[in-house]
Write a structure and sequence with these properties.
Elements (H helix, E strand, L loop, with lengths): L18 E2 L4 H10 L2 H8 L10 H13 L16 H4 L6 H9 L3 H21 L11 E11 L9 E2 L5 E12 L5 E8 L9 H20 L11 E4 L6 H9 L3 E5 L4 H8 L7 E2 L6 E3 L4 E3 L3 E9 L9 E11 L16 E8 L8 H9 L3 H10 L11 H24 L3 H4 L3 H9 L3 E6 L2 E5 L7 H11 L9
Helix pairs in contact: 1-15, 2-3, 2-6, 3-12, 6-7, 6-12, 7-8, 12-14
């Protein structure tokens, strides 16, 4: 593609007050209002002084800016261009939103957490963003990530396990067999804190949110005949507080254990003939034997966790181990190895063997890595920066980023496009949100004129028609 020679560009002017660069904000904000985002923020937030007034509209502005791609307070100026002031009431200035965020304290952040969890329930009721949560397996993942910051003025910044200065973001996600992950819990922590800090509380809150969503989806106060949620995590969360919180909340666990002396002793007790080849890198399926020819193998053994602690902390379950040959070359090795040396990956699970056998349990556990994609997605959008020097302002920014993430994913789920529903929010933003439009007036109503031949016209119109049903009565 190259510039036209027959119609060369000779001038450019920013002079059209009827243009909008992000037409997708119209149906997405309509969905947010139908899911009670503004009403929830007004009901739950008690931010003081005049800077906390109209909390619902200010939270709505922050979430809308993030949906449109803003990753700093200054980027919120995107809400004040062209005809957006006509399409939306009172789009706030970036300075006003920054002052609002700086008034937050820890209690206000927790109030905003309550808004986020209830917004997710509303989205689940209005859209298929969590399709299958009431009928199929439910996977809950928990993990943290370091959001890099620069300079010493950021409150709470420090050096954590990654070796870079930053703030620690802990999130939990919920995934079903038919829906992409959505975020059910979030907490901003100081950069130098351990991964497991506050994990038990986060798991308990997430399980309550899942129960609330299931209740809303099924329209029943006591959901019956539903699968037991499965909490997945890496070895940083293998401790009694996190596991017991999951079990008390009615969930099973699948958590990596690490390799200490107790785990190595348990692995050494696995019989030689108990190992089963699995589908793995460079594996080949043998049609004659209907089995995999693979260097990776799994096995399991009954295991009781935390036997070194008091008896009330003992948790029975299974230790499932995956082993692969250790192909790392040893320096100054004088001769070939006489026998195979294995690398082991073990995880502890309380699932029923009749529901998840050894091989299936290993496959399900490995899918815990999906939460890393959610972290990357957030860092590629609103969490590219921590915009304020105030810790609680950044904590509130994280919660707004999570609401924008879930709202964007819910909008994609409405379109009926299965590929778009599982795409990253960057892809959804490019196809559904940042679509240019020109507004036109007729009989005190506004019509949006979008580009012809837009590749995702069908998906966009499906989203629009579901959020603006036809033949609605005109409000007085």
């Amino acid at each position: 593609m190259q510039l036209s020679h027959t119609r060369p560009v000779t001038a450019a002017r920013f002079d059209d007050p009827n243009l909008v660069s992000a037409a997708g904000l119209v149906p997405v904000l309509a969905l947010a209002q139908r899911s009670w985002l503004l009403a929830l923020a007004d009901a739950h937030l008690s931010v003081p002084t005049d800077k906390g007034a109209n909390a619902g509209r200010k939270v709505g502005s922050l979430v809308a800016g993030m949906v449109a791609g803003a990753d700093s307070i200054a980027d919120m100026a995107i809400l004040r261009h062209g005809a957006l002031g006509t399409l939306f009431d009172r789009p706030y200035a970036p300075s006003t939103l920054g002052s609002f965020l700086r008034q937050f304290r820890f209690g206000h952040v927790r109030q905003l957490d309550a808004v986020a969890s209830r917004l997710l329930s509303g989205l689940a009721e209005q859209t298929p963003v969590l399709a299958g949560i009431d009928t199929g397996p439910v996977m809950i993942d928990i993990d943290d990530s370091i959001i890099e910051v620069h300079g010493h003025s950021k409150q709470g910044s420090g050096y954590g396990y990654s070796g870079v200065r930053g703030l620690n973001s802990l999130i939990t996600t919920v995934t079903t067999t038919t829906a992409a992950p959505v975020i059910t819990g979030q907490r901003l922590r100081k950069g130098s804190c351990g991964s497991a800090r506050g994990a038990a509380r986060m798991i308990a809150d997430t399980l309550r949110t899942v129960h609330r969503v299931r209740t809303v989806v099924t329209n029943s106060a006591a959901p019956q005949q539903m699968s037991v949620p499965l909490v997945r995590a890496d070895s940083a969360y293998f401790g009694h507080p996190a596991i017991s919180a999951a079990i008390r909340g009615g969930a099973d666990v699948s958590i990596t254990t690490g390799l200490n002396s107790v785990i190595r002793t348990a692995i050494s007790a696995i019989p030689v003939d108990a190992w089963t080849p699995i589908r793995y890198t460079n594996a080949i399926f043998d049609d004659d034997t209907q089995s995999w020819i693979s260097t990776a193998e799994v096995a399991e053994i009954p295991f009781t966790a935390f036997t070194a602690q008091k008896k009330a902390h003992h948790i029975p379950g299974r230790l499932i181990v995956r082993r692969i040959p250790d192909l790392r070359l040893k320096k100054d090795q004088g001769q070939q190895q006489l026998f195979d040396v294995w690398r082991f990956h073990a995880f502890f699970t309380t699932t029923d063997p009749d529901d998840l056998d050894t091989v299936t349990a290993d496959q399900v556990h490995r899918r815990h890595a999906i939460i890393e994609q959610v972290h990357a997605d957030l860092k590629n959008s609103a969490l590219a920066h921590m915009p304020s020097g105030h810790f609680c302002a950044n904590a509130a920014w994280l919660v707004c980023a999570v609401m924008a993430f879930n709202l964007t994913r819910a909008a994609a789920a409405i379109t009926g496009d299965s590929a778009l529903a599982k795409a990253t929010t960057g892809t959804i933003r490019r196809t559904l949100i940042t679509v240019p439009t020109r507004i036109a007036y007729s009989a005190r109503k506004i019509t949006l004129h979008l580009p012809t031949d837009w590749p995702w016209e069908k998906q966009w119109m499906t989203l629009f028609e579901n959020t603006f049903p036809r033949n609605l009565p005109i409000a007085a």
